[in-house]
Amino acid sequence: MTTAAHPVAGRRLTANHLGIAVLLTAAYGVIPFAGSDYLLDAVLTPFLALALAALGLNLLTGYAGQVSLGSAAFLAVGAYAAYNFNLRVHELPFLVSLVAAGRVAAAVGVGFGLPSLRLRGFYLAVSTLAAQFFVQWALTKFGWFSNDSPSGVIDAPPLAVAGITFSGAVGRYLFSLTVVVISTLLAIRLLRSQVGRNFIALRDNETAAKVIGVPLLRTKLLAFGVSSFIVGIAGVLWAFAYLRTVEPAGFNLDRSFGILFIIIIGGLASIRGAVLGAAFMVVFPLLLSRLGAALLGDIFNSGVLEMSQRIVIGALIIGLLIAEPRGLIALVDRLAEPILRRFSRPLSRSTQS
Amino acid sequence: DEQFFPLQSYRVGPYAAGGTGFFGGFIDYLNLINIRDGGVNGVKLTWEEGETQYEVERGVEVYERLKSHTGVAAWNPLSVGIAYAMIDRITKDKVPLITVNHGRTDSTDGRVFPYVFPLLLNPYSETSGIVNYVASREGGADKLKGKKIVVLYHGSPYGKETIPIYKLLADKYGFSLEQIEVPHPGNEQQSQWLSIRRAKPDYVVLRGWGVMNPVALKTAQKVGFPVDHIIGNVWSNSEEDVIPAGDAAKGYVAITTQASGAEYPVLQEVIKTVYGAGKGNLEDKKRIGSVYHNLGIVNGILNVEAIRIAQQKFGKRTLTGDEVRWGFEHLQLDPARVEALGAKGLFHSINVTWDNHEGDGRVTFQQWEGTKWKVVSDWIAPDWAFLRPIIEKSAAAYAAEHNIKIRTSDDPPVSQ
Amino acid sequence: MSDLLVLEGLAATYNHAIRALSDVSLTVRRGEIVALLGANGAGKSTTLKAVSNLLHAERGQLTRGRIVFDGRDATSLPSAKLVRLGLVPVLEGRHCFRALNVEENLVAGGIGGGLSRREIAAGLERVYTLFPRLKERRRSASGLTSGGEQQMSAIGRALMARPRLLVLDEPSMGLAPLVVETIFSTLKGLNREEGLSILVAEQNSTVALRYADRAAVLDAGSTVLAGDAADLRGRAEIKALYLGSPGESAAHLAALRRPSPADHAAA
Amino acid sequence: MFDYQFFIEVLVGGLLSGVMYSLVAIGFVLIYKTSGVLNFAQGAMLLFAALTFVSLVERGVPFWLALSATLVIMVVLGITVERTVLRPLVNQSPMTLFMATLGLSYIIEGAAQLLWGTQVHGLDLGIDDVPFEVGGVLISQFDLFAAAIAGTLVTTFALFFRYTRTGLAFRAVADDQFAALAVGLRLPRVWAAVWTAAGIVALVAGLLWGARLGVQFSLSLVVLKALPVLVLGGFDSVAGAIVGGLLIGAIEKLAEVYVGPLFGGGIVAWAAYVVALGFLLVRPSGLFGQKLVERV
Amino acid sequence: MSLVATSGGDALVLARTHERAAEAAREAEAAPPAAEAALVGGAPVPVLQLEGISLSFGGITALDGIDLAVANGEIRAIIGPNGAGKSSLLNVVSGLYRPDRGMVRLGSERFAHVPTSRLAALGVARTFQNLALFKGLPVLDNVITGFVHRRRAGFVRQILSTPQARREEAESRAASEDVIAFLHLDAVKHQLAGGLPYGVQKRVELARALVARPQLLLLDEPLAGVTLGEKQELAAHISNTRDAYGTTIVLIEHDIGVVMGLSDRIAVLDYGRKIADGTPDEVRSDQAVIDAYLGVAHEGETELVV
Ligand SMILES: Nc1ncnc2c1ncn2[C@@H]1O[C@H](COP(=O)(O)OP(=O)(O)OP(=O)(O)O)[C@@H](O)[C@H]1O
Ligand SMILES: Nc1ncnc2c1ncn2[C@@H]1O[C@H](COP(=O)(O)OP(=O)(O)OP(=O)(O)O)[C@@H](O)[C@H]1O
Ligand SMILES: [Mg+2]
Ligand SMILES: [Mg+2]
User: Fold this and answer.
1) What residue ranges are annotated as transmembrane (chain A) (predicted)?
2) E133, E188, E196, E198: which to mutate for ligand 1, most atoms within 8 A of CB?
3) Taking residues B120-124, what's their average pLDDT?
4) Domain for residue A284, yes or no?
5) Which tops the pLDDT comparison, B231 or A2?
């Protein structure tokens, strides 16, 4: 987990830039028109929310090296905070409550990040479970958070920004996409700055970082804060753009593991990895179940198929880790390397010498 | 012509036992109608399952995937979380959402929730039904005064939903009340039961879920609380809840809207026609007639009858979701009709109207005998009149929050 | 004298992509001390890891070549088996068991070699005589001991397994001059008396060449020179090229570092 | 007036349920001690073992035969895991291994349900769970039985790790896999042995918990109870597992009864974690855990 | 600015390299005032002073009443057998260990326990005996991070790239590029530090310590595991650094050739006690030092003389 690539080399950057441009054009220009409601509402929107959450966790775990098993708690904090801002502060523009929700999540994150000043590794990981259970408990316990709704379930307000309401599958998708793109850009800027270097320094060698003058305390808490901020915003997307109703039980431990899973499968300390991991996490089980149903649906019931699928996914995770412990992104890079090399040989000479 | 049921089933994960029973029963009944009657007046019933593992987002995915199928009759998720996530969606898509025995209490108010049907029972009427049963055991409502009831509830929104109603009923009948939470999943309840032992209540109401139930019964035995004074709610009333507790569960009583057992004619027909043709859905035939299976059967009856009623108005063809909704809003099955359907004793009756989407289901109580449930009470009526204003108030608040115009009886029943 | 270890045309990569060795051949005869020399990054450590079949643990792979130890093909023998056959490595970076104390580290070496309790006890005595410092620190967690003490523990641990061929990666690193001399003369003694063979990679070529019988020089993953240690000691190009002068080594390094298409050919 | 009788009752109840937590925690400790990884599949293994046993018994296999058969299956499982998962992932970061155990848990859970169905089973070990009174405090035979088993397991393992050479080899493997390979320790054997042992512990814990909860999917959730125990006792200390279990059990119950009402109850879910965290701030590697050995 | 001493290829004695490099430095540009003052002004001001430092670890005495003064602008070597307490001494100075007794004086401040987080701000930088690089960062970023304590802009400013943040970034980048060129690391500056050969990593660590132009530089075996040729080169760099920036250097090294050639004064530790302190020549002929550390076989032979 220490030798993850840092996006610097010139050649890769240009190739990356091109790829990103193509992706963005497709995401904004093609998919909204070509995608079905199902694709947008049930695949892409949750994918975006999870990718953002994974990005947030990646900052903390992948870059700053602090393992957290409590991401779902920060998703929940974000979702419930946005709901309450929206509900209790009149005429508050939605964007403001979005950012405010992120900040609440960040504050809670910093609070639960305090143990990281003393703890490391799995000890820290397990202690973040305190956040997981505490937040879920508090949201269930205190009716105030869900506006005393008897069932504890809250309904999402409409997504409206500057008078435009993002309703319908396309609107919600575009809204999520924009939030994700902006957050990702900001995250990239952060990672390219000294703060990003400090994160990695912290992860790779805490003592050396301290001696050099990296402010450990501030950096750790910042990592928790920024990470929770992003995860909190992802929570808003998850709750308001995707599910449009949430209950505390939805933010359970499985969800936290799911997010951790995304960044490890995708590749720690890689933004592209987080995206790839999220795509894998969301799309792959769907594909697998569709495939299973199509091929074997007549023979077995959905339960049997589902269990077989679990086995397949489990085996795939292990297989992938064996093939490339640094995650999907490293695998992709490795496989793409010869091809890229062929195309960009002249370029690589000029930038490297 | 065909009428389609998208099924958000769950056959894997912690709640798989309930899911396989319920969806098994539902599918068994649909099969029965297809095989025996060739469908509902010639309209074939079809379905497709999507596994949700009881997870909301998977349920939503299945919704988005199956909603555009032609001839969707109704959604039956048997999951509070998934049901909640669907309310907006089905209202927009104008398809009924059936949450038999569960779901949002205030969706009983059809004036605000035109497409949601918490058939037979909602959490409030369940509560009232349980208190009425206790009263009957004590020999009348007046005997409740001075008694002590502890409610042991699951630490989730579901578990907490009835807290205020128990309080109201305690005030009304003058019994003293203590409500104790068991955090999810509830596999350790030592401290709760020690508190109960200290409180020395007359009854404990178990508002449990999943593994919490057998553990409660086991722990009750450990602290010496008499099991026949523990009364289970509607999610604590199945074989799955008692079998793991072994002997500790013998004598436990629980509420139900549908009796268990396979002796009812409709079940006999299912066994003969469906299982006889090798099309039975349950892998383990011993589970035929179990609580969840019978709930599935009853749910099947209610859905099919709603379609039948709607067909009388709109014609014997594939109906739209909105037309099926009309059928549900006129789903009135009196005991005679229930008997004609072969379900006498299985469930009592239902009487859904445009504004009462629950339909005044009656409840009964069963006692676990170690291998099977035995009905130990009459069909009891909850105190609907007492509950209705509370429900209306809550529904009105929802309407206000969501800018929903409250429907009146003059509003056109269906846009045709 | 017969061949104890033979490397034939080894090529190796890391992560299926980074080529570390392209053509390494060398022979260690029974009872011989062979020094492996070369600039930083020449592939010395990789060669030694390949010899003890440890590359896979660092996601490296042998893509070509053959390793013969004691007459049998050792290319894919598990490392535990190799140790039992008498091929014991001391790795770069020391790799002490940090949480175990010094003595436990040594005992672990004996266990790895499949020795009996008595043999282990005797081995401990031997190591403590060689490194009195370790005896003083026997109850300290290895991870807390000084760099040199860790180095001694690592060497001692390998000696515990009663090797026939000791594979050493920069044994002198971090050790006081006196200790370096002691180690080398002790090893030389074992070599003379017990016929212990040694393959040693060293930066400290002065010392290495003084004790070695023969030496091989690696450059950019290939053996480019091999011969009598005494010979090599005198040859000017060795000094110039592989033991280095500043300007050249910088240029050399630059050349080495620039990924060339050949690096990826193996993948 | 403080009710001492009740206090003691809660305390004893807590200690006894703490023993049940320890049983689960030991399985974790075994694997952490030899691979430095939190084995997420422990819950699945527990479920799998109990489910296999119950299903065999329900199919008419006699008790002892079923137990032996399940034991054999757990041994096979241990060896398979070593072959297919651990060996190719040798010397990888703990995070990678952790993820691999997550994958493993998917496979085991899926296989368990596919093989034996999703039904809920009752499990009767023939040990009474009916309490008897000792000085006004209720104690059940079952709890005592569980405590005895846990005690035996812990003593065995603790002695093993401390006094045998194999124990030393195990610790070496956990410390630095690369070095362990280099000195010739046989990692495959060590891992196969440990995973087998963890499988057996899973079986024991699965049966005892299964008798409590019934054998069903939720059984795999009991691992959540073990995590604070591990943190408190130290991930790599067998003794820590038992002491941590007792402490967590007692504190959790006392907190629920005496502190819980202040918050409206239901605090057990996180109280244990908060307590464990509190301890950690004083001792970052748990009560008995190996201190981080690190210097420059 | 290139301060590299390029030598023939003959056997060379380091002292000469040192001289020549110093000459080159003086020619290239005038030494900064601090160094000038130290060199010209005569009476050296102690930059670092240890007063009766004692440290033990559960029965093991690592340091026993060490007094040590390091004058401004000097290269001060610390040698001694393995486990003598050399690294522990550096750890005390950098605040990683808290001495049981004694005081550390850094510049004008005295500490019972040096605050590590202020170390960089106090003008102290160090390298580590066992590499302590940020393996996941490219070489350039590793070096830039060595500049971190000079940074003031908070993270929001850095994200928004305000003028201040931009200026700081440019400044630290320029300084890093300088040092990287100085240490001939250009060819590898975009590679991850973790994948580099050992010797190169050692050099990156030196670069990271140098970039902030510390007043006091603590080097713990900076030349271990480095190819002989590069050893000469690095040794030259070290002395150039002193000459060019007036940096005071404390050097731990086992290569006697380097130590004797490079340092102004040498302190010798054994079992946590200082057994000798003096010029290279004094130390070389000290019988206690020969017995404890050097051994006899060495008459004049250093590693660097092939
Ligand atoms: N674990 C690893 N992963 C990736 N590349 C590696 C790894 N270990 C070594 N390399 C690369 O393989 C090549 C050979 O390295 P090796 O460590 O064998 O050299 P060496 O001769 O031992 O150098 P040194 O004298 O510095 O120890 C180098 O280019 C190095 O960067
Ligand atoms: N954190 C620690 N805990 C326990 N003992 C320690 C610790 N740090 C140092 N020691 C002990 O103190 C003594 C001095 O160690 P130190 O690392 O200072 O030696 P050194 O002179 O640097 O040796 P070397 O030349 O081998 O690096 C050693 O015996 C070591 O075992
Ligand atoms: Mg090397
Ligand atoms: Mg040292």
Assistant:
1) 12-31, 43-60, 67-86, 92-114, 121-139, 159-188, 221-243, 255-271, 278-299, 311-332
2) E198
3) 94
4) no
5) B231
> What's the mean pLDDT in B64-70?
92
Mean pLDDT along residues B384-389: 94
Q: Among residues B385, B15, B79, B20, which one has the least CA distance to residue B210?
A: B15
Q: Is residue E227 part of a domain?
A: yes
Joined together, the tokens standing for residue E122 give 């106090």
**Residue C100: its pLDDT value, please?**
92
What's the CATH code of the domain at E112? 3.40.50.300
Total domains in chain E come to 1
Judge if the beta carbon of residue E91 lies within 6 A of ligand 2. no
- Cβ proximity of A105 and A229 under 8 Å: yes
Q: Which of C216, C246, A170 is nearest to E14 (CA)?
A: C246
- As annotated, the residues of chain C forming the CATH 3.40.50.300 domain(s) are 3-86+164-266
Distances (CA, A) of B331 to B91, B96, B302, B352: 19, 13, 8, 5
Residues paired with residue B117 on neighbouring β-strands, in sequence order: B98
| Cis-peptide, bond into residue B185, ω within 30° of zero | yes
Q: Which of E280, E271, E262 is nearest to E84 (CA)?
A: E271
| pLDDT confidence of residue A10 | 43
Q: Which residues of chain C does A2 touch, with a Cβ-Cβ cutoff of 8 Å?
A: none
C38 Cα nearest atom in ligand 1:
21
Angle E76-E80-E81 from CA coordinates, rounded to 5°: 160
Cβ of A212 and E148 within 8 Å? yes
Who contacts E237 (Cβ-Cβ below 8 Å, separation ≥6)? E3, E4, E182, E183, E206
Torsions phi, psi of B212, nearest 5?
Answer: -60, -30
Give me the interface pTM, i.e. the ipTM. 0.89
Structural domain containing residue E51: 10-292
Cross-chain residue pair C157–D165, CB shorter than 8 Å: no
Dist. CA E197 → ligand 3 center (Å): 7
What does the alpha-carbon distance between residue A24 and residue A7 come to, in Å, rounded to a whole number?
19
CA distance A52 to A184: 8
Query: Per the structure, how many domains does chain A have?
Result: 1
- The response to whether residue C42 sits with its C-beta less than 6 Å from ligand 1 reads yes
Mean pLDDT of the region A98-122? 92
Using DSSP, state whether E233 is helix, strand or coil.
helix
Entry field: residues in chain B: 416
Token duo for residue A215? 């402010």
A277 Cα to chain C: minimum distance (Å): 21
* Fold (CATH) for C3-86+164-266: Rossmann fold (3.40.50)
For residue A60, give its domain range: 39-251
Residue with the two structure tokens 């241990």: D78
D18-41 pLDDT per residue, tens? 998 999 999 999 999 888 888 989
pLDDT tens-digit profile of C39-79?
A: 888 999 999 999 999 999 988 999 999 999 999 999 989 99
Radius of gyration of chain C from its Cα atoms, rounded to whole angstroms: 18
Instruction: Show residues of chain C in contact with D177, CB under 8 Å.
Output: 57
Which chain B residues touch A37 with a CB distance below 8 Å? 64, 68
d(CA E77, CA E262): 8
